[in-house]
Amino acid sequence: MNSTIHSDQLRVTSIPYKALGFIIFSGVPIERDSYKINDGKYYITIKSKLELLPVEPSIGQYWRVEGTRAIEEIELDNYVMQQHTYTSPSNTICTLPETGEQLIRFIAKEKDFKGIGESKARALWQLFGNKLHERLQKDNTKNRAELRQVLSVESINSLYLGYSKYKNLAHCNWMSECKIPSSIQQRLLKFHDEDTVISIRKNPYLLIGFGMSFNEVDELAQTKFEVDLKSPLRLSAALEFSISVEVSRGHTFTTLQRLKPLLMKCLKSGELVSLAFQVGYSSVQYLLNSDSGTYHPTAQLLMESVVAKRFLLLATNNNLYSDTARQANQLALRELSYELTHKQNEAITTSLSNAISCITGGAGTGKTTVLRTVLKSYREMDFELHAVALSGRAAMRLYESIGFKTLTIAAFLRKDPVTPSFNKPNHVLVIDEASMIDLPTMYRLVTHVHPSVRLIFTGDPDQLPPIGCGKVLADLVDSKCIANTRLDIVKRQECSSGIPEYSSLINQGVVPKKLSSGKIYFHNTPDKQLKNVCAELYQQSPGNSRVIAPTTALVDDINKWIQNSLNPNGQAMQFFMHGEVYFRGDLREGDEVLFTQNNYERGIQNGTLATLTSVDSTGNEYGEVQLDTGEFVSITQDLLDSMMLGYCITLHKAQGSQFPRVIVALQKGRITDRAWLYTAITRAEHEVHIVGDESDFAEVVKTISNSRRRNSYLNKLLTCTGIITK
């Protein structure tokens, strides 16, 4: 066995394995610039993740491969044959055949060219030769008329249909030579037409929009395209990339002081930085607020303006508490078995009086009780009810709390827009856990519903900010232009737990005098012992506990530690495919698991928690899980890739959910601030364990929330002081 860097071209003859997002395919080598096959010399096998390939391999296709090649000699009866194996190669390209004979064979044998045999394929080549590709690039009347000399109408349709699948693959060679990553090649070829690739050939800086950094694309532009350093394309791309960095940090606008260093990293010249601002200004990449000197990306400003306009329009409709609403409210209140607080009654009245309103407050203050009563009142008034939340777990918890149908925002946006009709003239949309909603999501929501649809936001503006840009709920509350009732009396947790008071201090940036108080227990732990202590605490009450950690790396470490401590002898997942045994050694029977992808048909969403109850494999089913809803679901291939251990989860997966007992793995980092800690602690219903270093804890509590440092213009627009001038 030996290894070296090599390249090969092959025709696929077999696909022995395809499952779990991984594929193995093999073929015979083809001599370059020839139709001859090197029979008997060696055989080529490629092992790769499907996501790294431009198309799914099938028998008869032509591929090029480049990377590390392992060579193994196999002794046969009369000779020795070599097996060449490429595992996760650097470049793997499906190509159209380059010679006449190869193309004839390809069309005749490839299943995508249905009904065209070798004789017709050969006749096409004899008639058109190399110009056949030109005829197939464009499906028009003239080209079809010429093809009609050989083929029937049905065969011509088949020819164009088959060719359309492969014509963009001709660009693969160019993209590979340019060292464009395989993942980006795949997205370009799968989800974009040929015009997109042609546009990139003209302007390589468009690749920034597909995930490449400016410096990566700039090196390509300098070496392959000889782009001038002062080219408007280059300067515009540098500015766009710098602005996108700011947006990725959560900002909807930025400042000169923040943009200049980012541009300097890209352009390495003060003169070019100044030119970039001029180019961006003239092409309306951004708008300048002359009063504040702030730079507003055009897309973000447009979304903020649309959202603010809708909110302000609804806010003018603010005297709606009629006799009908009062009677509906009284009927809804009669169904309650307990008295509401003054603030809760105020929140109900406010939500019925205003076309847009907020119900805010910390965990356990009774927001869902108020919301349930409000929605019952609206139902009495014949309103059509719509209730959504960002995550699957939050939507499920909302349904359990209010008793009305709920959807994730993604599912809601896939449905038809909400528009009043003769039979259903009145609608109200509830957006729960609204602190998680970013600006783009809010923009999609307001453009998905008619301007007459009433809006109710519920949530806690002091929680962790959205992953995307903006901070919609915080801006709504801070603007004081939208009716908001803040609930402050805790209803869920027992006062003796100490959780409300403790979390309130953290929210104010105050380190509690007693780090352990009531049902909150602080475990002063050095970083190297963090995983061990979290695992020990989890074992004390596994059925009620969930660990929350700030990073995916720490989540993975703690999950493995808990699994080895709690479930060391659980039977690992194993199953048979194509006569061979495969393992998922990271998952064992009895493990807590988390799903990381949506599968609505199976009742599973990103963030769904479950218990792996069986690893018995039968046919295409590899075991069974019990979801946290109590439902049992069989594990099939489409679910297997999205499963991971779920003893410990990130806070974003936990947001919108509560657990009886929460273990907070506290580790300093970029995202660990007081809002993160406050949100993590308030995920607990009864008991909290904080595991971390005492000095780190104090530093995190004193660290101002990242959300408060976000630049967001929505607040200004809501208070009618935001005037942009160009």
Question: Explain this structure to me?
Answer:
The chain has 726 residues and is of the alpha/beta class. The strands form six sheets. A six-stranded parallel sheet has the order 12-11-13-14-10-15, with helices on both faces. The protein has a five-stranded mixed barrel with strand order 1-2-3-5-4.
- Strand percentage lies at 15-25%
Helical proportion, percent range: 25-40%
Sequence stretches where pLDDT stays below 50 over 5 or more residues: 33-37, 721-726
Q: Which shape, going by the Cα principal axes?
A: globular
The overall strand count is 27
Average of pLDDT? 86
Label the structural class.
alpha/beta
- What is the count of helical runs? 28
Which oligomeric form is depicted?
Answer: single chain
Q: Main β-sheet, in a few words?
A: 6 strands, parallel
How are strands sequenced across the largest beta sheet?
Answer: 12-11-13-14-10-15
